[in-house]
Amino acid sequence: MRIADNKYAYPRAPGRTCPVDYRYSPAVFDRTPDLCADTLYVVGGLYGNTEALGAVQLLTERDPTARFVFNGDFHWFDADPELFAHVDQLVGDRGLRGNVESELARYDVQDPENVGCGCSYPPNVDDAVVERSNRIHARLATVTTAEQRARLGGLPMHLTAQVGRRNIAIVHGDAESLAGWGFGIDMLDEPSHEGTLLDWFTESKVDAFICTHTCLPAWRSFDFGKHRGVVMNNGAAGMPNVK
Q1: pTM, full prediction
Q2: Phi, psi at residue 168, to the nearest 5°?
Q3: Strand ranges of the sheet holding 40-43, from the earlier edge strand across to the other edge
Q4: What is the pLDDT, as a whole number, of residue 9?
Q5: Nearest 5°: CA angle at 96, between 91 and 101?
Q6: Quick check: 178 and 102 in contact, CB under 8 A?
Q7: Helices (H), 8-164
């Protein structure tokens, strides 16, 4: 499997790297859709915000025929056993696992890689932010049960959906990694990254990717000649991220 060149290469350190098992090929999205819908809501980066979750619940009541997917990192600030259980119950089987959930599932395992929160932060993120994220994740893990962690570890890393006539790939990070930053707003606007994006759309055979992870929303449409593609980064539903 080809791993895209990363201008954000950084020395290995907790919070700066991700495990090998986060990796997948863009070709995995060339498959029968996991779900079909006329209307699909994808909720990224809930981060344990119960107020935001309440707003999502209102949407489900107003649009009962729509499908909802939480594309990872729905836990984070809910470092309380009751709050954690509440979020976990309401998300249920509608969730993908992000790096937060993936590393919670790894909490009982001796991890020689020591990836911390698993965010794979690039160098333009300050060390203090990385260290704080590792501490938040470590605290969050202490309020979880083995049963909850096992359930989170069983969630998929990605889904495919057919919405109308369009084929959609739903991921947490990017087309090659659960914690990839290739769909971050700066990378989407980087001319040298366009070749990688073309490869991802060509191999995946999807019309659009819906992602999160970077916390900053972006919507970009690409015209590759014979192929068009859209990337929708939904930012973070649980934190302010739109001016």
Answers
A1: 0.92
A2: -120, 135
A3: 40-43, 67-71, 95-96
A4: 47
A5: 85
A6: yes
A7: 50-62, 81-91, 99-105, 127-141, 146-153
